[in-house]
# Entry
Amino acid sequence: AQRVTQPEKLLSVFKGAPVELKCNYSYSGSPELFWYVQYSRQRLQLLLRHISRESIKGFTADLNKGETSFHLKKPFAQEEDSAMYYCALGAGSYQLTFGKGTKLSVIP
Amino acid sequence: ETGVTQSPTHLIKTRGQQVTLRCSSQSGHNTVSWYQQALGQGPQFIFQYYREEENGRGNFPPRFSGLQFPNYSSELNVNALELDDSALYLCASSPGGERRGYTFGSGTRLTVV
# Structure
């Protein structure tokens, strides 16, 4: 069975500080990992995916198959980064398995 | 380019009733997926429709059913509503069954009393 764990419900950081949102997954096959973000009063939207190896809005995430992790990182947090972040696993069929989410609060 | 639209935005139903939620997919997208998001939880996959056929289903009972129409819009039907069905229901469309291209709607907030 697939499982995604985001251990932190809430993460508060000061503006300019580094951010790391943790995500661990459980899946025996070859996974696809995604990060989705939901800003206040907006819909869920894709932030980045591991196969693209891209940096969006300064965020990066590296898939570590040994540690089964896909942590989201940003070197310098900005106030507009405050949002709900969901890690998601794509495995087998087309659906995504989401974690419970981490609320990031950036303190001015 | 229009996005994914869902209707209604909110509704309240009584336990035991039936409900239909609607979703219009983004232009050019032929696949629609439905997710249930309970309070404080991440979205949970219900099922997916591709070319009017269900081609994937999560761990939901048969009283959750759906339809996809020739224009790729979709309905989610829930029979015999239970209190635990209270949640935000999200629709996501994508091109060619490709989950990487998911576009989510704003959701329908269902409250069962």
Notes: Residues 37 and 87 of chain A are 9 Å apart (CA to CA). Chain A touches chain B at residues 4, 32, 34, 43-46, 49, 51, 86, 88, 90, 93-101 (CB under 8 Å).
